[in-house]
Amino acid sequence: MPSAYDSQAVEAGWYARWEAAGLFRADAASGKPHYSIAVPPPNVTGELHLGHATNGTIQDVWARYRRMTGYEVLWLPGTDHAAIATQNVIEKQLEREGTTKEELGREAFAERVESWYASVGDTIIGQFKQLGASLDHSRTRFTMDPAYVRAVRTAFVRYHQRGLLYRGPRIVNWCPRCMSAISDLEVDWQEHEDTLYQLAYDVEGEPGAEVVIATVRPETILADTGVAVHPDDERYRALVGRYARLPLVGRRLPIVADPAVTPDFGTGVLKVTPGHDIVDWEIGERHGLPVINGMHLDGRLNVPETPAYDGLPALEARARVIADLEREGRVHAATPYRHEVGHCDRCGTVLEPLVSEQWFLRMGELARMSLDSSARGGVRWHPERHERTYLDWLRGIRDWCVSRQLWLGHRIPVYTCANGHLSAAVEAPAVCPECPSNRFTEDPDVLDTWFSSALWPFATLGWPDDTPDLRAFYPTSLNTTARDIINLWVTRMIFSGLEFMEEPPFADVIIHATIQTSDGRRMSKSLGTGVDPREVIAAYGADALRAWVAQVGMSSQDVRFDESRIEGFKRFANKLWNATRLVRGGLGAEPVPRVEPDAELELMDRWIMARLQATVAAVTAGIEGYAFQSAISALYEFAWHDLCDWYLEAAKSRLRDGDPAARAVSLHVLDVLLRLLHPFMPFVTEELWHRLPGERDFLLRTAWPESDRRFDDAGGTLAAEVERHLQGTVEELRQYRKTLRLAPRGGHVLIHRAHDASWRRALADLGAVEVVTELPPGPQLGLAEGFVVFPMRAPAEPPVPAQRLAQLDADLERADSKLANPEFVARAPAAVVEKERARAAELRSRIARMRGH
Asked: Mean pLDDT, the chain, as a whole number?
């Protein structure tokens, strides 16, 4: 074996071998218990990011673990067409080329999109392979595949037949650049510095009387159709039922009382513009106020009755409106105002609330169905707190606007015949169901991307057909995602599964951490703060990235990118490599026997076998409990410290001498360790597994280790002797030498009444070991009930430097002074106080040893 692990030389080769062997291909007819995951489909808008790497690693840990525990696993890959996002990407490309999609034309635009999908889709799949994702590529799906398109159209038609879909004018979030409706959940709220204006409207029938409203959008007053106050606001109760006059226009505005008004905002009087605000729309519906759509689709004002403002962009119209109102003396105040403004999360344009003819899905029955399922424990959430996000949204849900005005996406399968009859159909009808007409116009809009991705867990398995995959692998077992799309996607998958499959689409949902930049900012390619997983893999290897993700992915809500910790796992992979080199070098040519409890095992053999059983239990519990950080930490501690630092250091001379017990134990422990690590670090473990002796299949085809209770440390006697006594002695010797600034090795170590040869071997690395029956006179250090002692000052040892002692005395004085201060003890965190006490105790002990007390 080379002297160091080279991830670049190993990883690509193993993935090709796994695929060639068909390790990831699922068999729907298998008699094994089934386990399935449908990959949250990445948007085909560019390369994967660290969020995808986090998601993919968590899923792959489960997929590999379940295969090793005897399941037939389907981990199904795929990508999402991401209509609005992809259209924005292509339009930006065209803009750089000096053209537009309109100039290109629909057909040429569609061809360009298809080419983009093919190229980026291949890139995404390639990145998943680099990560080591054990995906069944024979089942790769895309949300614009013909079969998937049919599933989407079928879902729409069935909703329509159930009366859950309707088309009508409602107020929506409108992007003037994308020229499309935008979901409430896809609004990017950004803080703006604006001006809050107080504007006076005359009260009809009372000369000189005014009602003053407050607004940051004075240009929208031109579409006002009412004024509202809170029913309990004594200041304005007498105005309710009267009328105000709209400045610049002269329109009569009824003054109504409505609980939606916030009395302590501005003046407590709300201008009601039902065509430009969702709250105003709802007030208008309650009070029968007319709706004026005061804006064109591109964000310019649509107020033909006031030609001076008609067609102006919003900001230009605002300046003119304020100037005209100031001339009339109607601007009573203008103060700075900070508030959040909605932007299109795809292109960044300020959104405009706009009344538009759209398709809506009625959510009342679907929400009740989902809430009932949750009450029955239909889906388990990890961490559990995220279920509240899901439930809260369902309880306050509005009807879902599912239509978009884009060139990309699933066309809404609704046809209108020449006589005006409307029908929803999976396939274009030949004849109108209501009349003989055979001429149709298809609805020009497309469906919200989330409508199609809501079907992902079952549409990928062949729905609406009754396929072997659908019968075998639905409901899926696990869904993983970040918290920002719980309601955009997870909630919609749940009610879609309940509606079309009559059961939730998955049993468990993992909400993993969001990866931030190292300084806590949001990762973004456009901001230049994104980290490409391929660069991390090139520098440290996929295993190191995966191990770090496993350590942090479920540890908290937000995690900062930490390259140093990833580098630490690269060193860990190299540690495993060198441990395997050491063990392999000591195995010899003869077959290695199995490890049995009644074999002639030394103390360290029995101890490492006991530690191994505890590690098997800890790792299994960590995975099963969705606490991957516990599992990977247990593996790291066992491999690095227990196995490498202690057992192999103590056993290497035995391995050189061909000791049967050391050979058997070393090989067995390494074998089990590689199997436990495989779901987290598949490449290095597969490579090392195949470098061990004997015929070896792929790790995915081996059984997950189970604890061998025969090697349990009953009562903790092994741990006490090794970890407290032996390891404590070694550490004390090392600290003693360090304190006296002696060489780390050399001199003599005296063993009195040693219990096991392992002690002698463990201490031999520190100096010449001598077994004595009587202790020499003079100051000595004794541990573990007299098991080990050594002279405090050997004749060859140099005297303790006075300068060093003076420094330690000063350190102790400072520590004691802190602890004697009542304010420090009372106000400092308990952990800080305890640390200071421990430091003082260690300083006293060190000074005493140096002085020979």
From this structure: 89
Which contacts (CB < 8 Å, 24+ apart) does range 778-782 have?
779/852, 779/853, 781/732, 781/736, 781/849
How far apart CA 779 and CA 241 sit, in angstroms, is 100
Residue partners of 726: CB distance under 8 A and separation at least 6? 603, 758, 759, 762, 784
Residue 732 to residue 197: CA distance in whole angstroms: 74
Percent of the residues in the chain that have a pLDDT greater than 70, as a whole number? 90
Neighbours of 304 (CB within 10 A): 9
Which amino acid, residue 668? H
Q: How many CB atoms lie within 10 A of CB 174?
A: 25
Return d(Cα 569, Cα 540) in angstroms, integer: 8
> What's the rounded mean pLDDT across residues 605-612?
93
**What is the C-alpha separation between 800 and 786, in angstroms, rounded?**
26
DSSP string computed for 213-250: EEES-GGGGGG--EEEE-TT-GGGGGGTT-EEE-TTT-
Give the chain's length.
853
The backbone torsions φ and ψ at residue 829, rounded to the nearest 5 degrees and listed phi first, read: -55, 145
Single-letter residue type at 402: V
Helix, strand or coil for residue 7? helix
For residue 361, CA distances in Å to 20, 26, 157, 168, 495 come to: 45, 36, 12, 11, 12
Strand partners for 358: 168
Q: Which of 264-273, 324-333, 513-522, 689-698 has the lowest mean pLDDT?
A: 513-522
What is the C-alpha separation between 849 and 738, in angstroms, rounded? 12
Q: Could you give the count of Cα atoms lying within 13 Å of 570 in the half-sphere of its Cβ? A: 17
In this prediction, residues 433-461 reach a mean pLDDT of 95
CA distance 687 to 670: 13
Identify how many contiguous H helices and E strands the chain contains and give both numbers.
28, 29
804 three-class SS:
helix
C-alpha span between 583 and 814 (Å, rounded): 48
Q: How far apart are CA 260 and CA 278, in angstroms?
A: 11
The sign of the CA dihedral 554, 558, 560, 561 is: positive
Q: Answer whether 212's CB lies under 8 Å from 247's CB.
A: no
Q: What is the SS3 string spanning 174-214?
A: EECCCCEEECHHHEEEEEEEEEEEEEEEEECCCCCCEEEEE
Q: Which of 470-479, 779-788, 806-815 has the highest mean pLDDT?
A: 470-479
> Is residue 464 reached through a cis peptide bond, with omega within 30 degrees of 0 on the bond before it?
yes
| DSSP β-ladder status, 780-783 and 788-791 | antiparallel
Q: What confidence category does residue 850 fall into, taking pLDDT thresholds of 50, 70 and 90?
A: low
Secondary structure (DSSP) of 306-368? STTTTT-BHHHHHHHHHHHHHHTT-EEEEEEEEEEEEEETTT-PBPEEEEEEEEEE--HHHHH
pLDDT score, position 778: 54
* Count of other CB atoms within 10 angstroms of residue 737: 18
As a whole number of angstroms, the distance between CA 601 and CA 621 comes to 28
Yes or no: say if 725 and 787 are a contact pair by the CB < 8 Å rule.
yes
Q: Are 509 and 374 in contact (CB under 8 A)?
A: no
Could you give the CA distance from residue 835 to residue 543 in angstroms, rounded to a whole number?
35
Q: What is the pTM of this model?
A: 0.84
Say which residues have a Cβ less than 8 Å from residue 13's Cβ, sequence separation at least 6: none
Separation of alpha carbons 390 and 382, rounded Å:
13
On whether the CB atoms of residues 182 and 161 are closer than 8 A, the answer is no
Residues 250, 263: Cα–Cα separation, whole Å: 26
Hey, what amino acid is at 105? Answer: G
pLDDT band at 709; cut points 50, 70, 90: confident
Residue carrying the six token digits 């190191």: 544
